[in-house]
Predict the 3D structure of the following.
Amino acid sequence: MENPVIRQTAGLKQYPKLIAGIKQAQLLAVTERDFAGLLSQIEEDPLFKKLAGPDDCGQRVITWKRFPKTGACAGHILRLEANLVPETSSFDLAAFMAKHKQAIELAKSLGLDKFRDLFLLNQEALVPEVLAGDLGLKAGQIMALKDLVDAIALESDNLAPSSLRAKESLNYVKVAKIEPDNGNFLISFYSPHLAKGGYVVDYEKLEGLRGRGFLSPEEFKKARVLLGRLEAFNFRKSILYRIISGIIEKQAAYLVSRDEVDLAVFLQKDMAQKISVAPSMICRAICGRSLELPWGREKALKDFFVNEKQRGKNLLVSIQAAPAQRLSDSRLAGLLKQKYGLAVSRRSIVNYRQELGFASGYRRNK
């Protein structure tokens, strides 16, 4: 049987077509795997390497900047086991581990924190010879670790598989884990590309280097195109981060209590207005993506957006679960208004109750 790890990289041939004429909406629809391939390919471009990792650090034009309150979820990489991948998956984890065995052992020897800080959250391009000297390793070993990180990015959806796939027809990708952090929450991304944050381009420095022999006239023209693509990629990265950050801010009570009753009314159009994009962008960005919550449960991004009806039904489920609560529809409407600030009519209560399969208070009291 064909090696899935090798076969999956064959799609790299189509990336130049995907990059050409990138539009924001189209970029949001690109799968996590293809997006990782796009980023890896552009970072291997000789011109990108020249701008991000020049011999003279003073000529560095491209760096990275992490998004606030984010990190890299890497512990699972150092604890790879065959049973992590669902039986329904075609991904060959054993082949992946065999291919990167040396790098995985090196990462373990470095320790999780050092591996994460130097290879997943590094804000400047790696210089293998320099880093090898600092760590007492060989340049080839540093390159093996870098190749591992690139492979993790390409296979992040398989290395941290979603549990929602078996429940719904849509295949989900778990993009991040929400972790408690000194009274707040940290967004730990599974993809190294997201964990590193956005590209930072020093346009003033680039302009200052013009005519000094650092870039040829032809390279300077190509640089404008390359940097334009980086800006498009930044949009794809940042909109997902801002959505997750907005969810944490709006649904903080739920993340603390773990109770669905604490999910606040939150519409996609509210999120769109908050980050100044079209509502359709939010819809595309959250489609097929999920989060792992602090208590281990996985939840689709779309399920954090709750309308008034869903909020009312969540509250009714909580109220009706209490044996002592045998309230009429009118009294239920009054309770939602008084205790939870949710103004709904008695007729709406009837509709919610019927959809949930609850009997009226009168029937329940008989």
The first strand starts at residue 62 and ends at 65. Residues 308-365 form a domain with the Arc Repressor Mutant, subunit A fold (CATH 1.10.10). Residues 273 and 279 are 8 Å apart (CA to CA). The chain has two domains: 4-240, 308-365.
